[in-house]
Each structure stands twice: as structure tokens, then as C-alpha cells.
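Homework-ish question, so no full write-ups if that breaks the rules, but can someone show me the predicted structure for this set?
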Amino acid sequence: MTPLLQVSDLRVSFGRPRREVLHGISFSIAPGQRVGLIGESGSGKSVTALAVLGLLSETAAVTGSIRLAVPDGDGPTGRQLEVTTATEKQLAALRGDAYSMIFQEPMTALDPTMKVGRQVGELLGLHGHRIPGGSRSRVLEMLREVDLPEVGRIADSYPHQLSGGQRQRVLIAMALVNDPVLTICDEPTTALDVTAQAKVLQVLDRHFTQRSAATLFITHDLAVLAGVVDVAMVMLEGHVVEAGPIREVLADPWHPYTKGLVATSRLELARPGERLPTVADHFDRSIPVQGLREVPVSWEHRARVPGRPGGGA
Amino acid sequence: MPPRVPLSVPLRLLQRLGVFVASVVVASLLVFLVASALPGNVAQVVLGVQATPEAVARLEQEFGLDRPWPVRYGAWFAGLLRFDLGRSYLTGQPVLDQVLPRLGVTSWLVGLAMVLALLVAVPLGMWAAVRRRHADGFLASALSQVGLAVPSFWLGILASLVFAVQLGWFPANGYVPLSAGFGPWARHLVLPVVALSAVQSAVLARYVRSATVEVLHEDYYRTARAGGWRTVQALLRHGLRNMSLSVVTVVGLQLATLLAGAIIIESVFALPGLGRLLLDAVAQRDLMVVQGVVLLLVVAVLAINALVDMSYALLDPRLRIERGQVR
Amino acid sequence: MSEQPLYQVRDVVRRYGHAARPAVDHVSLDLAAGERLGIVGESGSGKSTLVRMMAALDRPTAGSIRFRDTEISGLPERRLGFLRASVQMVFQDPRSSLDPRMTVGASITEPLRSPLLRRRAGVPADTRARLEEVMAQVGLDPADARRFPHEFSGGQRQRIAIARALAPRPQVLVADEPVSALDVSVRAQVLNLLADLVASEGLTLVLVSHDLAVVRHLCDRVAVMSSGRVVETGTVEQVWSAPRDAYTRTLLAAVPRLPLP
Amino acid sequence: KDTSGGHVPANSLVIGATAEPPTLDPTKNNAAAIPQVLLYNVYETLVRVDSSGNLHGLLAQEWQVSPDRRTYTFRLDPAATFASGRRLTATDVKWSFDRIKSPDTSSVLRTQMAVVQDVQAKDPSTLVVSLKRPSNSWLWNMSSTAGIVIDSQAAGDLAATPAGSGPYLVNEWTKGSQVVLARNPKYWATPPRVENVTFRYFSDATAMNSAMLSGDLNVISNVQAPQALDRFSDPEKYTVLQGTTNGEVVLGMNNRNKALSDPRVRQALTYAIDRKALLDSVWAGKGTLIGSMVPPTDPWYEDLSGAYPYDPAKAKQLLKEAGYESGLTLRMRLPTLAYAKGAGQFIQSQLAAVGVTVVIDELEFPARWIDVVMRQSDYDLTIVAHVEPRDMVNFADPEYYWHYDSAEFRRLMAAADAGTPQEYIDDQRVAARVLSRDAAADWLFLLPNLVVTTPNVSGINANATSLSFDVTKASVGS
Amino acid sequence: MKRAALVIGLVLVAGTVLTALLSLAWTPYDPLAVVPANRLMGPGPGHWLGTDGYGIDLLSRIMVGARIAVLVGVVAVAIAALVGVPLGILAGTAAKAERWPRLVADVVMRGNDILYAFPAMLLAILLAAVLGGSTATAMIAIGVANIPPFLRVARAATLQVSVSDFVTAARGAGIGRFGIAVRHVLPNIAPVVAVQASLAFGMSILSEAALSYLGLSTPLPTPTWGRMLNEAQPYAWSDPLLAVWPGLAIGLAVLGFNLLGDGLRDLLDPRLRESVQ
Ligand SMILES: Nc1ncnc2c1ncn2[C@@H]1O[C@H](COP(=O)(O)OP(=O)(O)OP(=O)(O)O)[C@@H](O)[C@H]1O
Ligand SMILES: Nc1ncnc2c1ncn2[C@@H]1O[C@H](COP(=O)(O)OP(=O)(O)OP(=O)(O)O)[C@@H](O)[C@H]1O
Ligand SMILES: [Mg+2]
Ligand SMILES: [Mg+2]
Ligand code: NI
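A: Not a homework solution, just the prediction itself:
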């Protein structure tokens, strides 16, 4: 089966003089596959996500290749679009339709001057989907699907009238309204409190299961990731340093950074008052990071950087 | 401690109105004092260079200028309450009768110039923002800068030289009221409006540009693009309204500038507007007219600022006060 | 509790503008010296509002807050010196709580140069020395004092904010979600730092978080807030292992855990 | 109808002018813009002045002066009627004159009428005016605003609705833009040829020129920026009439200033200024060099412009004699008028060359300048054009802002006014020479009258001898 | 392109300022001496820009004019900023405060609105009566007339800054209202004020031209660019260059200050600094 997304040797740099922030990463996502992307702040997760949909700011220079399968109605056509060279028009046709994205910050990601129902609804019309019951009913249905209460009232609300968790769910509704084959979720829950986060994760999980849709799920929180994805990549300083099935990565982290991450993520295990384990306990920053050249398409096996990984216990 | 009870909406409106009225009263006093403080004397102007001091004194008395200022202010203010701006010293006519026909001319001039400025500045500023890293965007920025650098009276002179004298497309100057037909009215206003709006367009374009740059950095803009809108579509659908807040503020701010600019444009194009009335009245120290016109301007600017404040809520739902709603 | 509590919060209400429901609704709390109090609750439950009033950065609409037997809720800024010298605050977002146009060193020593705090008992007089001391304490190189906030990572910036709060040697440290904006890899560092400081300086701590696990780690007592009210208080272990309130249980259940042994 | 742009309607004059009348009552306000429109065109006088400066009868068919020259008997034209159709009688003239004489009018014209003892309407067409003393200037003044005859029955709101006997009526007054005159259908004498006359007002000289160039005007009443006259040089399209006015541009010297009270200093300043070059620089060489307070259209005119040739050396010499060898500083307070500013700048530079430092200071005109210079005499030098006809008499008033105080001059002027017409001319001529000799002021130049018309317009005077822009003889070809 | 704006702006502004300074020491000809024989010469080797209707060298006049332009621009903007910005900060910080300061802020804002509507010309006439028509009159009148936009801009920016966490943090650190205004608000609103200042600078030069037309500014014979433009008006047909030179000078100076303002804003913007870090 052709993958939905095929990224090879993706390099992104910014500014003048050029500063490379992604140092050649490669991976692919098959239909229905749920891929996680973890890594510390600034490791290049968002840049990867934005590059995939061609949404990087114009100061970015992108090399390598990103190919998106172009679907036709229900399934992939076998045609692929090269994002790095595509026109804005070609990309716009795919964005929000077959490929969609959910951003981190629910407070600012919605247009404050437009009722949310309309913001969801206009995406239906934009991609030319004719809805039998009218777009309003589809919008309400979608809002219901993301577990929002009183969907009628919410559809007629402005973003500021909703809570953070509600807004994030509206954003999810916007991303999912056209039944995308791949949804990129860029830290969709970090801005939420624990209760709102739990709800949002539940909604996403249900949606992906029901539609057998693929996702690229970005977070720095392993605990969040564990409930959503099947396979995961670990990023560090613009490199993918480890990849494989999520259980294996968590159970037996191989890269010292991953080890540290797993250790710090288990806050509830620590005894109150006791010193918490940190990433730095496992991983020596002074050693240059080496990245994976490739992530196996099948994701069945763990992939690791050849040779000895840097420092740590 | 009892909780503070927030004012109800009608009460807040009333409060606002109260502030507005108080401002107008204070403004009227200030206007009066400044006008009275202007050196020179209308009686002398009326009687001309040959006048004897006795004649001047008699005329001053006739005008009531010999009374102490609180009395004069009181009389004027009492008139204001009846919408009576007093009578011009020079012509003996009610000031209001002089002001109203000219108010029309100036309103059209300023209003249309503002509209034109918006029509030019919004696309130009957006273009300059979207393409700011390209040569054409830089050119658009530079173009708006040039508009700032040319004095509007020269622009007016040049425009009338080229389009009226050389090409004969439009009348060189003068005004006909709208009641004389749309065509002639419009033809007479084209050049002055263009000349007046040039500077405004430039100023506005700069604000639109920076507001657009803000929008380009906004998350919701990125959301819109991720949803499938193209750059320009996203900007128009989701950027315009968000930008309008800062642009409206500037429009409100620029209005006073525009009124000042109108004085010069009205001279260059021989339009019978308020600006020229004010200029002539000041030159001749027809203080009643000066007071009337300036008070009118002050009230207009206050009213426009109040409108701008109110339009915020219209443009940005976050600023609306709703029952049972936070913030 | 035999001795007089440091803070006495009584029936405090705070209503914002025209809001229908107060953000903080008749809250009463006591805080003893040396105690470590956690305040948890979902977003919008009024946690920040409450601690801001305790730090006299906001005024209650009604109710009273006493610090060391002095009523602070109505005091004008110029008479708050004693409080400012004793109570310092760390905010949630390390990006926005530092002035982008001020060097880190200037930010940290700002409280020391404040006219309200200067020459108060306990507030260090030697600014330079104290700067180097606190920077070392939070694990920053004192040589970095001349750099600007944007040149630091999120974790580092939060350390800077903590250093700034420590500078005047306060007795009480109020931390409003100090780790929520941080990525997990640095979260542990900051929590460890706070734990160390509280222990070594004998600080009284008020820690706000929406994550009970964070509170459990640092605090001995916890107050659970919902819709502006305190719905449950108790020792951390008590609330953690046997929550009485239904809302507390939801909060606990919502914390994601790694599915590992 | 669109009269304000595009093309001028047939058989009409559209005249560009600079200042708009503030009111339409010429007796209440001294603004020159009022008689410009109304005098002779709408209001008529007993006598009028022609383009060479001579008096002719208008409403008066003829008049006799008594041997003691104190009684004037006018025979009014029996055909004369007001625009209302009512016959114009001696009673109306008496009413009009008395109105100006009346003590409760503050009009400046009252001083011109002050010499009148008594006005009597002997019968409908005979008017007898007796004066307190003989006065030549009185009759002259009667040819101007002071002498207009108002319809005593129709005099309501004269500020808005004139009631005269002239060939035109005020048809429309759009404030801020124009006054439109229409032919008086009941005019008692030869009706004028042009049907409608519009005076359009421009505060900006360039705007007026543009209007002419784009065909919105067919007459410019007086070009205000002579540098731009080249634009109208094509004789196929424009006719330029170059005549004289009564506007002497006077460099006034305050005789109360110690230095300036010394005739040698005044003469020195006069020698130090190259008036020919000044005229070229300031007014594009248009205008006339005069040398005293007399325009060439006055009967006693003689060319005195050569009396003080440009001679800086002589100027220095005179200053030295007067004791100002080491320099002299004078304050020049200028009205904000183009010619004054230009001339001031020029003069400052030339006086600097003879060791006189001029400090310039501009005063808003009219309000400030009149107040400071004319009322308070707080100045040393100033420049302004005196546009009234026959205004040399101002030098006879030592209180006038120049404070020129010469018994000889006063005596000559009094004698002139009281003398026979011939004595009037002779004495005025001598008086003008006295002024020149004393360098009472420096008459920089006489403002030109620069009228531009389209070639089909005729009957407009080149010289502006009165305050009227007289359109009664104008005609427009096709 | 951002750097280009800054560099071009700097070059133009420096050019204007240096010209002004140079004119104090040297001009090719006496900028006041009337030479009737040299009237209206075109540009040529002797007079690079030609001469005017009095035979005065135009280059010399342009150079001296730069002096007034820079002086009026700088002083007027300084007056406007020194009054407007503190009041704006006051109004901005007080808007969130208790009753009394808020009332003061309201009064300041309404007063500002009234001042804004007041024609600058009236102020200038009034001042001219007291001080005489002088450069100082024009500078003060233009400066005062420019206070309202500065005040508004500063207030809006202050409102934004004063809700930011670092201001709250500073209050928590015991910094009083004044300290916050000086140490935090002022530096953070500086970019917006810089842009406003550059806009106001250009406008001031043009306003001076208008006031000098009414005799309310620099007295004769000192050449200012505005006066040169006014004097060139009658020559619009015959010698258009007379207007072109001062027009160009005004244009370049205004352009320079605007570009400089833009460049400064970008330079002071932490967002942009971060990306070039
Ligand atoms: N527009 C940009 N201009 C310049 N540098 C950028 C830009 N966007 C991102 N970067 C840089 O690229 C690097 C990777 O950033 P990215 O946003 O992908 O990190 P992240 O892994 O998503 O981190 P976080 O968890 O904080 O979101 C960072 O060093 C960042 O500073
Ligand atoms: N300045 C303000 N003006 C108006 N309403 C406010 C303001 N600050 C907070 N609120 C409202 O008061 C309530 C409590 O807010 P508070 O910030 O105290 O909650 P919190 O528990 O700290 O939430 P979070 O976890 O999101 O920080 C919320 O409904 C919020 O919307
Ligand atoms: Mg990210
Ligand atoms: Mg909070
Ligand atoms: Ni027309």
C-alpha cells in the first residue's frame, strides 16, 4: 500500500545566516497508522508538522522531499504531491480536507471575531462537500461527535465564550469535519488542565478508531502519547534518535534521552519529597546527537542510531 | 461587605452620555477662551485701515464686545442650548446658517477621502505585508512612504494642472451641490478627494501593513490555512475583521488630521467648505464663526471617538458585554 | 495548630466586572509558617485569583486576608512593603513573566532595588553579591546575568523567575503553576529545585497546579478548588489516596499515567 | 445649469476674483470686495469715474457748483429708476446720504460725508448739497461707495439683498464660492450686453489660474501672481490687459522712530533700494515705478520715479551725515501678503549693503497687522499697498501710522481741497513733490492691473481707477 | 529588506542632519543676499540647483532650510512625546486602577480628545501673539498639536503592556507604579512610540510649511523648505524646478525618518530579535 505521507531527508533551516533546525529526517505514515512524535521543547517537532502541510513561514528553507498521497473521493489515487515544490493552490486543496492539523493553543487558534459554528461550517463548503441535511446539521453533528454539550448554543458562540477544553474540541471538530485520512495533532492538550485533556484525548482516540484514520501525534508528554498512538519517534535537536512500537519504546528505552524522558514522566511513582529523576541524569548534552537515517516503513522493528549512543547510564 | 453591583447597560450608556455632555461643555469654554484670546479685533477688520478709533469703539459696542467675557460666554452658551451658535459679526447672519451648507461640502470631502484612503490603503498595506520579503512588497511600502512625503497642496496643484488643465477630464476647482446632479457633483469632487486622500492612504497603509503582519503571526490565521484557505483568502476571511480594530482606531485618529488637511485642499480647489470658512473667520477675527466652527469640530471628533469606542464591541465580540458572560 | 497562622483568609470573594459568578466565592483558608500548601483545580476554578489576592496583587471584592495579623486587603501599595519583603511569587509562564527588555540580572535584583523593600530587615543590601548567590542557588551561571530572557530556554527562564523571587529572602513563596508551561524534560528539574529551596531556606510554600501529582510531590497539605470554592482540604496523602469529594476523584482520574509497571 | 466649471455659458462673464464680499452692504463694511461687485454694476452714484480718472455724470445729468464752491446742485436723470421699477428721486439720494452721515452708523464713510452741511431734495430731480467748506475730494468721494444711492423703499436686509438702480441685480450668492449678477430687466438707461455675470472667489491664486486655463472662467479680474502671467501669453486664447491701479506699494517708515524722523535717513533708505530690480524680483517686472503717492491716472501725476536713483554710496553718505555711520537697526513688520514678504526680503538684503540691519517679523493680515502697525504704530518699517483712490491725503494726518508731520504738506492739501478744480490739481502736484522730497515713505511701485480675458470678451477697462470691477460696458462675442 | 529600510533611513537622516550642520559653517553662496542680475538661472556649474526669483542660490537655501526642518521636527516631536507619552502611560496604567486615578485618566483622555479637535493653527496664532511669529512658535504649536496621537498610542500600548505577567511580577517584587512605568512600560512601548515619532516628524516638517505660509513660523528671510515651496508656487508654470528642490528635500527627509522609524521598530521587536538569535 502506498503510504499517505512519505518524508525523506527533510532539512529545514531558518534565518540568515542559515541555521538548520531539522537535520535530515525520514519517515512515512501508512493509512490508518497512528504515529507519535516525542521530544523536548525546541527539538523540531512543530517544524516537522508544519513542513508536512507546507505551513512553515516563508523565512524557512526546506530541502528533501515530503510526499502526500492525493486521494480521490474515497481512496488514494496513487498520485503523490511533492509538498516542497507544490503551489499554494495545490496544497490548499489538500489541507483541511484529506490532511488536517490541530494546534496546541486553543486560546488563539480560533478567529475571535467569528462564531465557531461558522468556522467549522465554512470548511465544509470550502472543499465542496455537499451535505444532504445542510451544513448546519453536519456542523452540529460534528460538535456532538467531539463530546460538546448543548451543541446548538456552542455553535452560536464566539470562541471567547467557551472554555479552553471546549475550544480545543471545536478545533478538533474543524480538523475532522472533512474526514481527513491523516490528522496532525501538534501538542493538542498541553494548554489544557488534566480534566480537559482527558476528554480531548478520548475524543481523538474514538475518532481515529471509528474512521481508521491515520495521525501524526506530537507531544512532549509520554503519558499522553501512550494512550493514543501505536508507534512513536523520538526527536532530539533536529534528529530522530529512536523509533518503534510505542510499548517497546516505553518499556525499553534505548537512547539515553528517551530513558531520561521515561523516568521523569512517572511523577506518580516518585515518593513525595524525594528527588525526582531528570533527563539530565541519563543523558549528557555535551555529546553531539546523531540521528537515524531512516525509519522503517513498517514500523515493526525498533530503529536506533548505529554505534554507541551518547553518554548516560 | 456588600458586593459591588455592576451598572446595568442603560445606566452605562447614560454615564457615557454624561461624560460626553460634560466634555462638550468644557470644550465650549475652552473654545471660547482661546477664541477670545486671539489678538486682533473684528471691528477693526470690518472698518478697514482708515477707521477712526471712535468708530471702532462704537462698532465694538454694537457687537457687544465691550462686555466682560463671562457675560459673553454666558450669552453664547445659553444660545448653544437652543442650538443657536450666535450671529456672525461680519455678516450679521446666524452662524448656523453659514456653517450648515459648508458642513455638507467638508463632510463629503473628508468622508469620501477617508473611504478612498481605505480602498487604497487596505489592499496596498496587505500587499506590502504579505509580500514584505519580496521586492514588490517593499515597493508597495515605499510607495506608501512617498505619499507621506508630498505636501497635499502641491499634490492638489499638480492634480489640477494635469487632469483639469492639460487633460480637461475634471473641472480644475469649484463645487456644485449634489442637488445639482450626481455627475457634476462627483466630477468636481474627484480631484480634491484624491489629493486629500493621498496622505491618508499612505498613513493608513502603514497601519494596515503592520496590522496585517500581526495577523500573519496569529495562530488563527495558521488554523485557517491549515483548514484549506489560501493565503489571501485566509487573510480576507479571518484577517480583515481582526485587523479592523486597529485600523478603525487609526481612522478615528486620522479624522482630525483630515479636517486640518481639508482646509488646504479647500483653498487649492476653491471649495466652499468649513475649513475655508474657519480660515477666513480667523483671519477676520469673526469670533462667533470661529467659536461655532471649532466647537463643531470638537463635537465631531468627540462623537467620532465615542463611535470608534463603540464600534470596537461591534467588531470584536470579545469586547461585548453580555448578560451572565465573563469578560 | 497551636501557634498563630501566618495567613488567615476569611470569606474572600472576588468578582470580575460584570461576571455572573464570582471567580473566588467565599473561600477561607489558614496557612501556618513552614507549611507547604497545594491548591489544585481545573482551569478557571479561581486558583490564580486566590493566590494573587494573597500576594496583594489583586483586591478582594469582599472578605478579609490577614498576614501576620495585619489586614492586607485594603492596604495601599506603599504600605505593603512588609508583605512584599516576605511574600514572593513565581508565575506560570516563564516567557511573559520576565521583561523582554531587561537583562536577567536586572530582573532578578529588581526586588532588592525596590523602594518598598530596600532597607527592610532581612532584605539583602548587597545587590551584586545576592545576585550571584541566588543565581548559583538555582543553577545558573552568574556570568549570564547580562543576557536577555529570550536567550534562555523555558526551564532556564523559570529558574530566573525563581531566583528573582528568592532574592529578597522571603518567608513565603507563592508559585502559580510554575511547571505547567514547561516540557516534561525540564519539569522535574524545576520541581527538584523548588523542593531543595523550600527545604534549605525553610520556606513556606503555596503551590498552584492543575496536576495533583505535582502538588503531591511538593506539598503536605492540599486545597481542591472548583468553581471558585474550596471543595476539599486535607493532607496530601489523605486526598491522594482517599478523596472525599467527587470532583477530586475526577481530577485524580484524569491524570494520564504511563501504562508500565 | 452648471456654471462653476467646464464651459462658460453663452453671453455670460465668469470672473475670477480673490476676496469674497463678507456682506452685500458696502456702507457697513470696508472690504474692497463689496464695491468690486456692486459699485456701478448694482448700485449707482451721482457721478462716476472713467478709466482715465475723470468724473462724469451717472445718475446726475449735470451739476453746478456755487462760486464759493460750497453748494452743489445736481440735476438727476428723470428716467432713472430703481430695480424695483420705482423712480429714483432726489429724496432717495438725500435718504442715502443722510444714512451715511447719521451718527449711529459706524461706517468709515462717515468721515467722507462729514464735510456735508446739509442735503436737500428741492424737487424730485434736483438735489442741493451744501458743504461746511469747499472740498474737491467730496465730489470725488461721491463717485465711490459713499455716494451710492439706495432705494429707500426697498432697503430691507441690505446685507443680503441690495436695492440699487444699476444695470445688474444680485441673483444668487453662494457663500464661499460665488456671487451671480443677472441683467436688470427694468434698467433705466442703455441695458448692458452681457446677461449673467458671475464673480467666483479663489483664495488661492494658482487655483484661479487653473480655472481660467481649464475654461471655467473667461475673465481673471486681477492676476495675483504675475510670475504666472506667461501661461496666458498665447494671444489666440487669451487677451491680457495691463493697466494701472490705485494700489501704491508703500514702504512705510515710522516717523516717530528717532532715526526715521530724520529726512536724510529716509532719503538714504530710498537711495539704497533698487526699485526696478525689486519690481522684477517681486512682481515679475509688472507694475509701474511711481516715486510718490500718485498713480498715473490722477490728473496731477508726474513721473517722480527718478528722484532717488539707486545709489548705495549716496545712501551711505547720507547715513553718515545723519550720524548712523556705524549702523542702524530697524524692525520691519510685514503683513502676510505675497508682495510685502517678497519686497521685505529684497529690501533687507539691499539695506544690509549700506549698513542698515533690518529685522523682519511677519504679522497675520489683516487682524494682527492692522492692530499692531496701524493702531499701535509699533514698527519701524512696514510694507503695504494702499489701494484706495486718491489716498495721498493720508500723509496729511500726523496721527496716521506713518506719523509724517509736515505743515507745508498739510497746508498744500487743505488748499487743494478748498481750491478750484485747477488749483486742486496744481496743489496736489506740488504736495506730491513735497512727499518725494521729504522721502516721507518709499513708494516701491504701483500694483499693476492684470486682467486676463478670453479674446471674445471686450469692454473691460485696463485701468482700475475705482473700486468697481465695472462690467456695464462689457460684451462677450461668440 | 528590513535592514535595507534601516540603512536607507539612516543614510537619508544623516544626510539631512549633516547638511544642516554643514550649513552652519559653509554654504556655496550667501543664502540671504539678493543678486538681481542672477534671477532665475537654471541649474548649472555656478549654481548647481539654479537660483530663485531674487537671484539667491537655491542650494544654499536648501542647506539652510535643512536646519529649520531638523530643528522643528526634532523639537516638535520631542514636545509631543515628552508630554504625550507620560500622560499616555498615566492614562493607561490608571485605567485599571481604583476610582481616583481612573477619574484622572478619564479627564486626561477627554482633554486629549478636545485638544485633538482643536485646529493647530489657532494655537499657533495665539502663540504668535505672545512670542511673535518664530520657529519656536511653530515648534511649540506643532508639538502641542501632536500630543494627542502620542498620548493615544502610548495609552493603548500601555494597556497592553500593563496586563502582561512581567508587570504583575514587578508589582509582586515591590516596584511601585512609577517604577513600573519607567522601568517596564516605557521600554516596552518604545517601538510603537518610535514609529509614531517618525510619522510625526514628517508631518511636522509639512506643518511648519503651512504655518510659515501664515507668517506664524520662522520669520523672513531665513529660508525654510516650506517657505521655498510657497514662494515657488507662482513659478509653477515657468520655473517648476523652484518647487522641485524643496519638495525633494522634504520628501527625502520625511522618507528617511519614516524608514528609520520602521527599521528601529523592527530592531526593537523582541520577536524579530529572537529569530535572528
Ligand atoms: N519561524 C521560525 N524562525 C526561526 N526559527 C524557528 C522558527 N520556527 C521554529 N524555529 C526554531 O526551530 C527549532 C525547532 O522548533 P519547533 O517549534 O519545531 O520545536 P518543538 O519541538 O515543536 O518545540 P515545542 O515543544 O516547544 O513546541 C527551535 O530551535 C526554534 O527556535
Ligand atoms: N482579569 C480578569 N478579568 C475577568 N475575569 C477574570 C480575570 N481573571 C480571571 N478571570 C476569571 O475568573 C475565573 C477564575 O480565574 P483564575 O485565573 O483564578 O482561574 P485558575 O484556576 O487560575 O485557572 P487556570 O488554571 O486556567 O489558570 C475564570 O472564570 C476567569 O475567566
Ligand atoms: Mg511545538
Ligand atoms: Mg491560573
Ligand atoms: Ni462645473
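Now go work out the reasoning yourself. Hint: The radius of gyration of chain B is 24 Å.
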